[in-house]
Design goal:
elongated, alpha+beta
């Protein structure tokens, strides 16, 4: 798997200036690293100014106690992202004490060059442009009106959180809701916002609801203002349920775990095979494999043990590191594989390199008798315009080869992708409320 999500965002509003929220943000970001592991940052407002610390590295490695102590404040926002060398100077949150604004978002503003006041901007500066536009509007009007005005200019997919020098926190989600965002509370107050509900669980907040597409929240020391600024036109990202989100999360009020169990059941219905055991590739495909086993009655085995911390191969920055990462992170259990006919279940296939390495490891080094690959997502045929880093079409194995041809390339006995209908049914949403562009090549922008 070699797909990188854009970012994970988190914000917390304490309503009491005696609080120091930086450690809550820190733990929230640790819980969000399934959405990005290579850069991280926290910005906190202490009533006087916005302090920001950010850089490269995993959250628990980058943030020391000293760095967290340099971030006092009762309002905080944070971000985790994959590293993009083209935008190395633009790690989020974007923070500027001259403007008194801290800003973070997940997504992609497609028309940022057209709406930017600076004609010489680079190709990866949409977060900076979005922050600058919001700041200019905040000088003219209140936060609700300013955010609505900025959203009218944006074309794209985004979930954003900003803090101001006036002690406000602004939260908004684009009218299609492609990027997830939810809200939670401590006690009776709504006090936390995150890309996923599991992040709220980790910090001890109670999950309340998803932020609706086109909805704006403004937190102040005295109130929470809420406005449905734009008519919701849901086009939720289907790939959240397949891969991006944590299985313990609710995305758009739907259980990711339940969706993945349904995917595994559909795989068993659509592509049965006579075999001895079912093995899921850690971690995302484990629920798929469990459901496949439950439906067929075929025993499930623990086929691999992870070496070291959970680092997604997809997020490695080079092809060489991705190849080495497969060998390092998954060590096969010989007793579960040797001499057996195995159904190997994974979440997706992009170029096919990882799958080929795993199948080769199982067959030629461990001695599997047969390997039948089942993929818990439809054919991936198109790059994503909304900030998800999918390779170009000519690199996508599903866009260029049939299942039989892929089977030969990766060395499997048989190979099959989940049907589009099955992934739609598994999410619990109708087709017209989902973004399925990476599977179909048809995206909601421009419709």
């Amino acid at each position: 798997m070699k797909i990188k999500e854009k970012c994970g965002v988190f914000g917390i509003y304490a309503f009491d200036q005696k609080w120091n929220v930086s450690r809550f943000v820190y733990y929230g970001l640790i819980a969000s690293q399934n959405r990005g592991q290579e850069t991280c940052g926290i910005a906190a407002f202490n009533g006087d100014k916005i302090n920001c610390v950010k850089g490269r590295g995993m959250v628990e490695e980058f943030f020391s106690s000293e760095k967290l102590e340099s971030l006092p404040g009762w309002i905080g926002i944070g971000n985790v992202c994959p590293f993009n060398p083209k935008s190395a100077q633009n790690i989020q949150p974007v923070s500027d004490n001259d403007s008194g604004l801290g800003f973070t978002y997940n997504g992609k503003i497609l028309n940022f060059k057209e709406i930017s006041p600076n004609p010489k901007i680079g190709n990866e500066e949409d977060a900076n442009i979005a922050a600058q536009l919001l700041y200019e509007e905040l000088k003219k009007s209140d936060p609700l009106e300013a955010t609505e005005t900025v959203m009218e200019k944006f074309k794209g997919a985004y979930s954003l959180i900003a803090i101001t020098k006036n002690g406000e926190m602004i939260v908004a989600r684009d009218p299609m809701g492609i990027k997830p965002l939810c809200i939670g509370s401590f006690g009776f107050d709504h006090g936390a916002v995150a890309s996923e509900s599991a992040t709220l669980d980790v910090i001890g907040a109670d999950y309340k609801a998803p932020i609706k597409p086109g909805e704006i929240y403004v937190f102040t020391p005295y109130s929470i203002e809420r406005k449905q600024a734009f008519k919701p036109e849901p086009r939720y990202c289907a790939f959240e349920y397949v891969y991006f989100a944590r299985p313990d999360s609710l995305i758009n009020d739907k259980s990711v775990y339940e969706a993945r169990m349904k995917i595994g059941e559909y795989l068993a219905k659509e592509f049965p095979v006579e075999a001895d055991t079912v093995i899921g590739v850690p971690e995302t495909a484990i629920p798929f494999a469990m459901a496949y086993s439950d439906y067929t009655g075929m025993p499930i085995e623990m086929g691999f043990v992870r070496t070291g911390r959970s680092v997604r191969t997809a997020i490695k920055p080079t092809q060489f590191e991705r190849l080495v990462g497969v060998q390092l992170k998954l060590n096969p259990i010989r007793h579960a594989i040797r001499g057996k006919k195995v159904v190997l279940i994974d979440d997706s296939v992009v170029r096919g390199t990882t799958t080929r390495n795993i199948v080769n490891l199982m067959r030629n080094r461990i001695g599997a008798k047969e390997v039948h690959v089942r993929i818990g997502s439809p054919r991936l045929v198109s790059p994503c315009p909304f900030g998800v880093e999918v390779p170009e079409k000519d690199e996508l194995i599903a866009a260029n080869l049939t299942p039989d041809e892929v089977s030969k390339v990766v060395g499997a006995d048989t190979f099959a992708w989940l049907s589009l209908k099955a992934v739609i049914d598994s999410t619990g949403f109708p087709k017209e409320q989902l973004c399925l562009g990476c599977f179909t090549g048809e995206y909601p922008i421009g419709e």
